Amino acid sequence: MDSIIFRLASSTGMGQYEPYHQLTLEKGSYVATPIKGDDDDFTAWNAWSGVADECTSPTECKRGWLTSFNAWCQDFRSAPNNTIKNRSFRSEDIATAIAHANSLPFRLTRRSFVNFFIADTLDDDNIGGLTIRLEKIG
Questions:
Q1: Strand segments (E) across the chain
Q2: Reported confidence tier of residue 13, pLDDT bands at 50, 70, 90
Q3: Confidence of residue 72 (pLDDT cuts 50, 70, 90)
Q4: How far, in Å, CA of 119 to CA of 68, rounded?
């Protein structure tokens, strides 16, 4: 498998892109990584209408730009609700957010459906989204 690149929207109102993406993956080890999108709309997302404030450093803001996303799979039995999440910072701008983006490694013990998604219970003020590169590493 070569790498797969897909987009995740941060809200349901972003046209053809959804806040989730489902793939069927074979047994093995994978890593999903946020990457710079073709445009800033899918490089980072913000849950506060684009606001970044109360920053004590470029990656330590009360509200800011994120590269966080989740993955759900029945095979993730040891994770709460079968869901895993990458580590993310609240950054002061999109460039800082993607520069500090963290990957999400995972292992499947069998062929499985994996749902990737951005989780936010109030997504009507969200803007942006993510471009994710998924690679099989073993």
A1: 4-9, 20-25, 28-35, 45-46, 65-66, 70-72, 83-85, 104-108, 112-117, 127-136
A2: low
A3: very high
A4: 8
Per-residue pLDDT of 19-65, as tens digits, reads: 689 999 999 999 999 999 998 899 999 999 999 999 999 999 999 99
Parallel, antiparallel, or unpaired for β 28-35 and 104-108? antiparallel
Q: How far apart are CA 64 and CA 44, in angstroms?
A: 10
Measured CA to CA, the distance from residue 22 to residue 138 in angstroms comes to: 20
Neighbours of 75 (CB within 10 A): 19
In terms of Cα–Cα distance, which of 128, 109, 108, 110 is closest to 118? 128
pLDDT of residue 15: 55
Q: In 9-132, which ranges are continuous DSSP H helix?
A: 94-99
For 94, the enclosing helix (H) or strand (E) is helix 94-99
pTM higher than the cut 0.85:
yes
**Dihedral sign computed on CA atoms, order 17, 11, 107, 83:** negative
